[in-house]
Specification:
Length: about 150
């Protein structure tokens, strides 16, 4: 008895099958949209920002590598960077291992653009100097304790 009733219900649903399919796939589409805006899109934006940061690396930038090494960029090549992690201690790393730029250097003011002295007097040089200038950097801070 139950089987014949089930066939009867399925036969009646054939006329409105298109609307039933839409209702069945709507949750899947909604889940995909939520995943796109909450997971995929922010990850793509973060990857683009990281790619732009790696492209803008230049000599003098203070960086952190994926292994946790902190140092200043001494030389920039196509795919490699030479980082000075302590006085006269230089390490070559792959550009993509840099995770963070702690401090950026200002671009050179030579070249084609003219700069005025009014621009240079806006901030005194002592205010731009980092507070770490007085302390030894890298392993020197451990070795020079008294």
């Amino acid at each position: 008895m139950l089987i014949s009733e089930a066939y009867a219900q399925a036969a009646g649903a054939g006329a409105s099958g298109g609307a039933g399919m839409l209702v069945q796939f709507a949750p899947l589409v909604l889940i995909f949209v939520v995943f796109y805006f909450l997971l995929i899109r922010p990850q793509q934006k973060r990857a683009k920002d990281h790619r732009d940061m790696l492209g803008a690396l230049r000599r003098g930038d203070r960086v952190v590598t994926g292994g946790g090494i902190v140092g200043s960029v001494v030389k920039v090549a196509d795919d490699e960077l030479t980082i000075e992690i302590a006085e006269n201690v230089r390490v070559k790393v792959i550009r993509s291992t840099v995770t963070t730029v702690l401090a950026r250097t200002e671009p050179a003011k030579g070249g084609g653009s003219k700069s005025t002295d009014a621009d240079d007097d806006s901030t005194p040089p002592a205010a731009n100097a980092p507070a770490e200038a007085e302390k030894p950097k890298g392993l020197g801070r451990f070795l020079s304790r008294k």
